[in-house]
Amino acid sequence: MLLSAGGFAVYLSESNVFGVLAQRFGDLSRAQNRRRLMAAWLESKLFRASGLEAAAIEAKIAAECRNYGDFLRITMGEIARSQHARRWAENTPEHILYAPVIKALIPDALFIHMIRDGRAVALSLDRRVDRGLQVLPWDRKHNRLIQGIYWEWIVQRGRNLGAGLAADYLEVRFEDLVCKPQQALEAVGGFIDQKLNYERIQEVAYRTVRHPNTSFGNEDEFDPVDRWRAAYAQKDLQIFEDLAGDLLVELGYPVNARTSPAAAEFRRIRAFYRRYFAGRFWLKTSALGRLRPRMNGRRLDEIVMGEDRAPALAENR
After folding, report:
1. Which pLDDT score, from 0 to 100, does residue 85 have?
2. What string of DSSP letters covers the chain?
C-alpha cells in the first residue's frame, strides 16, 4: 500500500538483509566478505527486482559499504534514485527482530509493525508450509497450534523491541487496514509525515493491493478478516485462546474462551517451543551460528526460499 501511494521506490521483494544475508557473509568491513555477498546477490532475484545496473552498484558497495545497514541503505537508496523517488520502504517480516540493530545502523529508520489476529495467521501458515515455521516431526499433528505459538512469540518480542524505539515505532492492525483503510492510513501517514490517499493506492495497486496474497485459492467470498472463525473446531479454538488469549486481548482482539481443560498438555508444548524459538534465534545471530557453512554450493535464491530459511511470519507485517 505504501508503494502504491506514490513517493516510494518500488521494490517488490523482501530484502532479507539481516535475517539471511548477515548470517551468511559475515563482517562487511572486510572486502572479501563484500565481494562474496555481491557475487551471490547479483545472481539472485533480490538483485533482479532492483532494476539496478550490476557494475555500478557493485562498485558503490565496494567503496561505501561497511555493514549491513550500509548495504540496505545503499541498495534501496540507489533504487529510489533511479526511480526519482524520495523514500524507500522494506518489508522483510523477520526484520522486526533486528529493529534495534537496524536503528543503530540506519538512525533515521521508522518501523511499522503490522499485526494480524493470531488465529488467522496460524490458519494461513498451517496451509502454507513454505512460509511458516517448520515444526519438529513428532509435533506435525499440532502444526496450526505451534504456528500460533510462534505468532505469539514473535509479536511479543517485536513489541518489546519496538517499545525501545519510542516515537519511531508504530503498530498497525491488518484488520483495520482491511475494514477502515483510510482511517488506518491516516495514522500511518501521520507517523511517516506523508499523506496517504486510499483512492490513489487502489488506482496504482501494486502487487497484493490488486491481487491479495492468500493460501485459500479461489474463495466464493474473499474474507481475510473473519474466515478463521469457521475453520477451527471449538475445542481447538479454546486451546488456542487459552494459550495466546492474553496477547489477543492486549491487542484488542475479542476472545470467547480463556480456559480449556484440554490445554494443560499444550502449555508444556508452548513453553518448549518458546524456548526453542529463542534458542534458535540466538544461535542464528551468535558467533557460533555464523560459523556454519555459508553457501554450501547453493544459490542465494535457494537459501532465501529453501528449507534452511529462518522462520518468517508472512502475514505479520
Report:
1. 95
2. -TGGGSSB----S---IIIIIHHHH--TTSHHHHHHHHHHHTTSHHHHTTT--HHHHHHHHHHH--SHHHHHHHHHHHHHHHTT-SB-----GGGGGGHHHHHHHSTT--EEEEE--HHHHHHHHHH-TTTS----GGGGGGHHHHHHHHHHHHHHHHHHHHHTTGGGEEEEEHHHHHHSHHHHHHHHHHHHT----HHHHHHH--GGGTS---SS-S-SS--TTTGGGGTS-HHHHHHHHHHHHHHHHHTT---S-S--GGGHHHHHHHHHHHHHHHHHHHHHHSTTGGGS-S-TT--HHHHHHSTTPPP--TT--
Structural domain contains residue 47: yes
pLDDT for position 213: 66
Domains of the chain: total = 1
Given the C-alpha cell 523491541, which residue does it identify? 161
In this prediction the pTM is 0.85
Structural domain containing residue 46? 9-90
**pLDDT per position as a tens digit, 251-277:** 999 998 667 777 788 999 999 999 999
In a domain? residue 254: no
Task: Confirm whether 15 is domain-assigned.
Answer: yes
Residue 36 is assigned to a structural domain of this protein: yes
